[in-house]
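Predict both folds.
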Amino acid sequence: MFRVALFTALTFACSPATVMADVALVQRAVDQICPLEDMTGLDAQARLPGAWLLNETRRPATGMANVIDLTLDLGAEGVLEINRLQPGGGLRRFTVSLFARQGEKLAPVLQAAADGSCRLRAGRAIRTEADGWVWLDQLEDDLVTLRWSEILQMPWPEGRDPGGIRVALVDSGLAYNLPGIADRLARDATGHPLGYDFWDMDPWPYDGDTGRNPFAPIRHGTAVASVLLREAPSAQVIPLRYPRPDMSRMGDVVAHAADAGARILAMPLGSRSAADWTAFAEALARHDMLAIVSAGNNGQDIDATPLYPATLPLDNMLVVTSSDGFGKLAEGSNWGGQSVDIMLPAERVPVTDFRGAAATASGSSYAVPRLAALAVRLLERDPNLDARSLRAALLARAKPSPFEEEGRLAAGWIADPLDD
């Protein structure tokens, strides 16, 4: 196992003294607060002199709390978030996360995880270097020794535009440094990639949904893109990291994709809030671009329980869900006789993950790139198709499935999206 001292690797970002001070602070929080069997916010505040309780949440609201979340303000030292998982009253996991103040923002710095005996087991640190690289370091139980590192952000690789049909992928971002992806990035005349990060509002949309936990990002976009680029060998991709902090930016996402020359907008994402998608719907209606979106994976009829943007009435959008190879709706995939247009096989699809490793993935998210790839191949044969004509051509390929009940899909099943 590869191990080095963390503070040596952090020379670019901060001093060893600062790193060790952060480690000592997090360690003190574990030592002082974790042993509290009936932890309350005020108890935790009292154990850390100078701390101020900002928030306390206990779930479920009645009876023995299975999860307790605390937020403590430490002044100049930053903010601590504490999570105590105690199903049935017995401690299973205790997590402390330190956020440093950077102007008006809080930046994640260090996280430590302890077991039911309050013994540290592992840590994670976010490290920013002077050259623009950002790393997520996986640490040993001393919170200093490095196990391995993952990329969170990096500069664009050099290259030139590969040509081909442009597809804008709106997702968690893209590991754009990987072989097979770096040479498929849509670029301007100077060779600069056309992607953008609408989450952090910077030019580097590297793969990572940090909404649930900044120290454990969900990597989704790279796997989705790998399907698209394999099934549409001449397509080029415009990676756009979706704006979870402010979904009103979705209008800007659509405009950016259109200005960059995208013919197709691939979107394997959604939410239950109609307000999240108002700007998206208004912007898409103004552009000749076909949006292909996922139906979701809640195992529900989204006609009855709306999911957006899938249930929006837009004539330049298609909604797709996942089936097995025989034409049966995949377990967990959503359906809707009015809202879900097409079903196609998207279970155990071969993908490349953000590390470049081979894997398989399933669900309506992976139906999106399969249908988008088919759309690319149709456009290659007839580049003059507008978005609505392209939509009609795709719908014409859908047929009733012999293994699925009627009324679950608006159009039908495409048994093999590679058969075109």
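Second protein follows, with its predicted structure tokens after the sequence.
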Amino acid sequence: MRILVLSWEYPPRVVGGLGRHVAALTRSLAAQGHDVHVVTRDHPDAPAEETVEGVHVTRVGEAPPVIGFDDLVPWVLAFNNRVQAAAAKLAAEKLAADEPFDVVHAHDWLVAYAAAGIKDAFDLPLVATVHATEYGRHQGYLPGPMNKLIHQVEWWLTYEARRVITCSDYMREQVETIFELPAAKLDVIPNGVALRDFALPQDEVTRFREQLTPDGEALVLFAGRLEYEKGVQTVLHALERVEAQVGPVRFLVAGVGTYSEELKQLVETLHLDDRVTFTGFLQDHDLRLHYAAADVALAPSIYEPFGLVAVEAMACGTPVVVGDTGGLREIVAEGHGLSFPPQDEAQLANRIVEVVQDPGLARELIEGGRRLVAERYDWDAVATAVVATHERAVEEEADLEPSSRRPLRAILQEAPILELDELAG
């Protein structure tokens, strides 16, 4: 197939799991023989155009006047203008060469406008992957106009899409409910992990661990975006309980996000400065070294559509402790990790202590986690499933009668969302 992918992040610009997901998926699609083009945001350390492992990548810069990312809605509109222009140029060139794209695949709401524009301009079926929802990030509450607007754009993207992909059964149920989608429009395809990328020499891991914990302290790791819903604050409150049972613990926090300053302030308030280290964003190899060196990796999320960090930790041979929520619950459902009620610092502390003090349990979790990754989250299988969704979208688009295409305004009048004038109020 000839596949056009739109994503607001792609290596080396990686903010969270979405960027790594899109990179691995597109590489796997290209390895299977598909013609894959990605249009994404630019990065100072990457060229405007290049081919990476068979994937043709086009990166777009910001149009003047430059709008700061903090001014999110204008930034998204300006960014989508550039993405749509670059994608349209690609689509026109492919059409002129008699090799038109078969499908356009959008990842999350930040590329919704460009994806819908390309869909309409070139009569392409649109597939959308919903990695998370604004509704879910705020536990079912949309606190302000910005949140309501994002929710509306997410709904619009799922309407425009011929098929919608979610990464877990939890997300499928949420998306089906809050956007009032027909169940038949949704496909559940998990995120994947390339096991070969996570195989590190043991001597390198040992040396690295000795650098991190020269006194032999237990090493606990969180990796991910620093946002409130990721639950790092629960870990900080749990550390005193952990140290009371196992002795000194070093807690590494790997990642960046909008909640980082609040977390650093909490570290000071709890007098944990000598126990907690914020590493900032880690490139892939360094992140995997941290996973492999840790005694336990945590995913203490309050809300989590999937939980890629838990799967990546398993691939590195590290036991995981996760919040009992969303996609994380599905990952550890058969004993491949331990779970605790989200925001319950006492139960989280107990789970960390169990792993650190029981080598037999740790070995069971390591072995079970590696088996699970190999059996369920292999990228080749994930890519094959995505192609099946693409093919189904193409077939469904071809079967659609032009007369059955209802005007968007009529659809929006029935949408389970607020009108824009209400959002402004």
